[in-house]
Amino acid sequence: MALNEKLKTIIIKELNLEDMSPEDIADDAPLFGNGLGLDSLDAVELVVQVQKYFGVEIKDMDEGRVAFQSINSLSNFIEERRSA
Amino acid sequence: MRLLFSEKVILDMRIAVRGIGIVGGFGCGIGDLKEALIAGQRTPQMTSLSINNQTIEMPVHLCNTFPVERFVNKRALRRVDHFSRLAVLGSFLALEDANRLQNDHENLAVIIATGYGASKTTFSFLDTAIDYGDACASPTHFSNSVHNAAAAHVSILLKARGPNLTVSQFEMSVPSAFLAARQWLEDKTVEAVLFGGVDEYCGVLGYCWQRFFEPDPTIQMKPLEWNSDSAIPGEGAAFFLLTRDEGDKPKYGFIRNIQIGHIRKNRPQVPEDTFLFLGADGHKFSGTHYALCVQQDTPSAVYTPHYGSFPASFAFDMAIAGLSIQERTIYATPEHAGDNSGLKIVSDQKDLVSEQISCLKFSCEGEFAMVTMSVT
Amino acid sequence: MSSIPPVPVTGIGCLCAAGANLNECMDSLFAGKRKPLPPTRFSSDHQVAYPVFEITSAFPADSSNQRSDILFTAELALVAAKEAIENAGWNREGLKNRQVGVCIGTTVGSAMNNEEFYRSYRSGGNPSMEAITRFLNSNPAKVIAAEFGLTGPCQTVVNACSSGTDAIGLGASWIRSGICDVVLAGGADELCRVTYNGFISLMICDTSPCRPFDASRKGLNLGEGSAVLVLESSDLCRSRKHPARASVLSSGSGCDAYHLTAPAPDGRGLKQAITAAMTACDKTVGNVAFVNAHGTGTPDNDRVESLVLNELLPQIPYLSTKGYTGHTLGAAGAIEAAFTVACLEAGEIPASAGFETPDPELLTTPVKHQTAVNGSIAITQSLAFGGNNAVVVFGKGDS
Fold first, then answer.
1. What is the pLDDT of residues B350-368, one digit of tens each?
2. Contact A47 C203 (CB under 8 A)
3. Is the pLDDT of residue B217 over 90?
4. Is B261 part of the contact surface with chain C (CB cutoff 8 Å)?
């Protein structure tokens, strides 16, 4: 899915995951905790990037926690907000 | 306790200098520093900047931080900017040089002196808000732009849990911050202090340099010409691993004395049997103070053309003093440092005969600091 | 074991949204006044306005304090210094003849982030260099030293949110070491668009007035202000027969070494700082009248602080005063030190503003109402970005 690929590219670029490529990120893999090893600062950075690239706002980290579970959950979140 | 009356601050001490980590325009590490001092002044890089809709070139002593990846993997550095990388590199090099990199750092304090802090990232943060709107301002850039981010990264990577301090006092940043290093070692608050000075160059600084000084890009830095502006900006980090006297002979000797004062009230008291390193760096407003205070018969040297002009550069002179003590060698003042008649400037490399080296720095306004290091 | 020598505090100056001087601030605190509002000195394009504690009162008292050549942060520092010096019974001539050090914490005061200049520079304009010159002239410690002709050690501490507390601890150490016989120690910071945007981007700001330690807390409100304490050697204090308002008994510091922005969940750095400070002054929990907590109102900070307070200082009343002042960053530790001394003198602490409902996750709660306090010492503590934790212990009078 094009949005998933775009999200992977954005995450790698904006969070400086230089040693990774999009193929390394599975669509349903957890982004935080043991997944990609992202942390709370990455989470708020991702909120800003989602706003910047897609114009979609994540109001607080309760919403963020749901949206950021995986690439799939994030792309669903964005699609839902965009069509609303 | 005696009452004091507006004297300069004079503190005696015996602080062991066990490791030095340094990165500057000349390269990385005490080995590169020694080579540069022997080889003589190197031409700084030319960097472009835009002013009045024109692109001009100006010399800057820039450094790169690639060697930091020898100590810390890329992933762990992904959010660490140039300023913090300079600090991390300087810190790790100092600990490695002291053979203490693998130690437990539970009781290690981290003190960083900086004139301008993480200026590049400060502007990168502004870029994100200006380019994309306030709601898209980057939290990663913001958290790295605070002055103490470098000390934080150093502590996190080393798991150093002693007190952390970052001081910003322009040219007096290093001597001012050193007061805390001395205090924490004297009080036995900590076992060791990782103490360093860091400053980075950025485009805005270069632009301001042009606007304030309109420098001639073809001339070399001539810090001994007291009445001219010939400063060339630089950047870098110089770190020291400091401990109390442990009864042995630390390789870079001891820090024995610090004096802090103001030319309005007093003068630096240069010890009789010392070699003087002048922190003059090509700014005429501070140059005049050196002219007033440096005695003609005190053997002196100036090394600022090797690394350029930036607020935390006093730490570089301290590093060279440490190296000189280790090697029992006084390195030559660069050939083009300026007309030095009237001063006893060492123009050739020679043996260190005196037991002490004193590093002297004036700010443009007349604040001064002098740190004396000794072999024993 | 013996304690380190106490360092008398002979004068205090304080200025923030709660008041133009320390007495006004304390009146506001005890009256429960707080009214954070959207910023008026700058605008932003966030969808929502985040309330801040701006100094909007006729600043500051008289116009002779206003200067166009220095940043507002440096002006704030000067105002607090002047109040403190007067409160300590010093005059300019008297101080000039002493070895006086200046140690001031700040964040904005040392940041070259003038947006107008930068926007013009970025777009190839030819901006006036005034903004740069103003920045170069605005190092808060240097500004105070220059104003009063002081030539002792000068230090601007840039340790983020613990700067003010750190500065007081460092200043006291200069007195104990005999480096100075007077130190002006404190902190100053102004509100600005850059920090406003920065903290909002970290998603740690509340869109309502902040609620430190409350179950529904959502984040902090930024604020601005300054405070300066005059610290003196005991000998000098005795020789000029000026009473000490309090004494700095000790300080402590520890680094989490955990994360750039989040505190260590186990609060290890704060525990280290409190333990070090209590050991150095050789006091016990039983001596502690109260704790002025950092209490920003962020979920993480308050959780960690509450955990540590419960473990190390159980049953000791504590409060956050940030509900009255906002988080004043580099000034916070100094403003809170000023409040701590005033409360020790009064034998009372105000309610912890913004706290209504206990959070079931937190094992302790701050005081909900004005509370009389007993005990000869009080603690003020700060937790900073980057993981530094700083604590200062004050004792009553000249201890």
1. 999 989 999 999 999 999 9
2. yes
3. no
4. yes
Which whole number is the average pLDDT over C259-287?
Answer: 96
Neighbouring-strand partners of residue C396: C246
Best of A52, A57, A61 to disrupt the B interface (most B CBs within 10 Å) is A52
| Consecutive H or E run containing C369 | none
Q: For residues B179-190, give the mean pLDDT.
A: 96
- Domains belonging to chain C, first-starting first, are 7-396 (3.40.47.10)
How many residues make up chain C in this entry? 399
Nearest to C392 by CA among C157, C164, C232, C128: C164
- Can you tell me which residue has the tokens 């000791």? C316
Give per-residue pLDDT as tens, C43-69. Answer: 999 999 999 999 986 565 555 667 889
Q: How many domains are contained in chain A? A: 1
CB proximity C68 to A under 8 Å: no
Domain at B9-374: CATH code: 3.40.47.10
Cβ separation of A60 and C203 shorter than 8 Å? yes
Q: Which residues of B touch C151 (CB under 8 A)?
A: 6, 8, 261-262, 264-266
How much is the average pLDDT of B43-55?
90
Say which of C47, C203, C259 has its CB closest to residue A61: C203
**DSSP characters over B74-98:** TGGGTT--HHHHHHHHHHHHHHHHT
Report chain A residues whose CB lies below 8 A from the CB of B139: 41, 44-45, 48
- Chain A contacts in chain C segment 337-356 (CB below 8 A): none
- Of B268, B327, B331, whose CA–CA distance to B299 is shortest? B331
Give the list of residues 6+ apart from residue B299 with CB closer than 8 angstroms, or none. B275, B276, B330, B344, B346, B354
Say yes or no: A61 contacts chain B, CB-CB below 8 A: no
Q: Is the separation of the CB atoms in B215 and B231 below 8 Å?
A: yes
Q: Where is average pLDDT lowest: A39-43, B41-45, C90-94, C240-244?
A: B41-45
For A16, the enclosing helix (H) or strand (E) is none
Q: For residue A71, what are the domain limits?
A: 2-83
Tally of CB atoms within 10 A around B227: 9
| Nearest to C385, CA basis, from C294, C251, C273 | C294
Contact: A41, C218; criterion CB under 8 Å: no
CATH assignment of the domain containing A63: 1.10.1200.10
DSSP run (H or E) holding A48:
helix A40-54
